[in-house]
Design goal:
Layout lengths: L4 H16 L35 E6 L5 H14 L9 E6 L15 H13 L3 E6 L8 H8 L2 H8 L2 E4 L5 E4 L8 E4 L7 E5 L1 E5 L3 E3 L1 H4 L8 H9 L5 H4 L1 H10 L4 E11 L8 E11 L2 H12 L7 H8 L9 E3 L18 H14 L2 E4 L9 H5 L5 E3 L5 E3 L9 H5 L5 E4 L2 H13 L2
Parallel strand pairs: 1-12, 2-3, 2-7, 3-4, 7-10, 8-10
Antiparallel strand pairs: 1-11, 5-6, 8-9, 10-11, 13-16, 14-15
Helix pairs in contact: 1-12, 1-15, 2-3, 3-5, 9-11
The structure holds iron/sulfur cluster (2 copies).
The site of one iron/sulfur cluster has 14 residues, from helix 13.
Length: 434
């Protein structure tokens, strides 16, 4: 059976990890991971009860990314669920910007959909921002992904402000049931309305990624991977991971979700080794989990089989049999991925090594620092302090790898460094355009 690109990358990475473990010491190695760790046993914490939310979902046919056709479909969908915008609102659009992929790779929310939503809100007199935190295994991070995914051009066209979440302040969230505490971008709290713009995709770990999963992008920079690592050796990791996803979703619940399911990503998602699949609809709802219920029904996935959807139902965020669908929901069965294997023994050690070698860490250039205090004041988990020479030192046991300090520093004295394996994987992804 031929290797998929993802499996090829994984095989290459594991080979290099086994080789490099004897010859290199990556920067991340020996710099302990965050000690703020939540309860890894997954004991439920306290959670505020949620008010009941409307469970109406609009499904609108949309067979192409022609900008006018998409705008008409978005307008009809919002009309069907009775959504209205108010002039003067500050609106934050949160697309799926997983990596520096192009629109035809179907891993990122299509710029025509983002453009249509920009147009809708600007025509209603709103001020629009577009924000996300992309993968950092490619040079350029989120700012680079805005360009590659065609979002930079959309923002220019509609006068929207781009907000790479690494340039924002972070807020500490202590309401998570399973992931607690954790940090998310402050940007979602600085806007009157957050509009979630997920892309319909399959996901090797989450099985399906839609409204709930897309909001995990409010966790900034490498923190996303750090939080994964807290739980990834649990024997029930794949089933469990839906719980932290819903913890984050509840903290940053959007007011509106519009899903790009014109072309989804079938098979081996969520990155560019999946298979684009024409699906031909846009979905909209003020209740993201309700939209996920409708979408799972459309692609033939049992709600109980998708951990985040199952958890959302369990928490009462949606009542699956009380979702009202406006429009015709097509039946477009997607391919169910095999379960993720839990690593044991040497493979687990290699996995840990790969993580340490791969995740980047912020490093201070002490010669370039002007002791301006900015990074110290802005680091949300207080991982930076001055040493006896009044130069910043980073406590890597407290640092969550959000990478915000890199943008906070006006002197460019903080940069991100990865181990040797990081460079190997970056090069492979660059060549294979993953
Ligand atoms: S040191 Fe930098 S990367 Fe680490 S938590 Fe603070 S701001 Fe984030
Ligand atoms: S923000 Fe930059 S210049 Fe200011 S104290 Fe931190 S490292 Fe030094």
């Amino acid at each position: 059976m031929p290797l998929s690109r993802r499996n090829f990358i994984r095989t290459v990475a594991q080979f290099f990890a086994a080789f490099l473990i004897f010859i290199t010491t990556p920067p991340g190695k020996g710099k302990s991971m965050p000690v703020f760790a939540p309860d890894k046993k997954g004991t439920p914490g306290k959670r505020k009860p949620q008010a009941p939310r409307r469970s109406e979902v609009a499904v609108e046919p949309c067979t192409s990314y022609d900008p006018d056709a998409v705008f008409d479909a978005v307008t009809r969908a919002l009309g069907a669920i009775g959504f209205t915008a108010s002039a003067g609102q500050r609106v934050l659009l949160k697309p799926n910007l997983i990596a520096q992929n192009t629109p035809d790779q179907a891993t990122t929310t299509h710029p025509s959909v983002i453009g249509a939503v920009c147009r809708f809100f600007t025509e209603h007199g709103c001020r629009v921002s577009i924000g996300d935190s992309s993968a950092f295994y490619q040079g350029g991070g989120t700012a680079g992904a805005f360009v590659t995914a065609g979002i930079d051009a959309v923002a220019k066209r509609y006068g929207a402000t781009l907000v790479p979440f690494e340039t924002t302040r972070l807020r500490k969230i202590t309401s998570g049931e399973y992931l607690n505490p954790f940090y998310v971008t402050e940007a979602v709290f600085e806007h009157d309305l957050v509009v979630n713009l997920p892309k319909l995709k399959l996901h090797r770990l989450a099985r399906y990624t839609g409204a709930i999963k897309n909001m995990y992008g409010c966790v900034v920079g490498g923190s996303k991977q750090v939080y994964h690592k807290l739980f990834q050796h649990r024997p029930d990791y794949q089933e469990f991971w839906g719980k932290p996803l819903v913890d984050v979703y509840e903290a940053v619940t959007p007011g509106l979700t519009i899903m790009d399911a014109v072309v989804g990503l079938d098979r081996d998602g969520p990155a560019a080794n999946g298979e684009p699949r024409h699906t031909g609809v846009l979905l909209a709802s003020s209740n993201g989990p309700a939209l996920d219920v409708a979408c799972c029904n459309m692609i033939g996935f049992d709600l109980e089989w998708v951990p985040a959807v199952r958890e959302a139902i369990h928490r009462g965020l949606v009542q699956a049999d009380a979702v009202t669908v406006h429009g015709a929901l097509p039946a477009v069965p997607y391919v169910r991925l095999p379960d993720v294997e839990v690593k044991e023994g040497i493979m687990r050690k290699i996995d840990d090594y790969v993580f340490d070698a791969f995740i980047m860490i912020p490093v201070v250039d002490r010669g370039a620092c002007t002791r301006c205090d900015s990074c110290i004041e802005s680091c949300a988990p207080k991982a930076i302090s001055y040493d006896t020479e009044k130069l910043p030192v980073i406590d890597y046991g407290t640092c969550i790898r959000c990478y915000c300090c890199e943008s906070y520093c006006p002197q460019g004295a903080i940069s991100l460094h990865g181990g040797a394996l990081n460079h190997v994987i970056r090069a492979a992804r660059y060549i294979l355009k993953l």
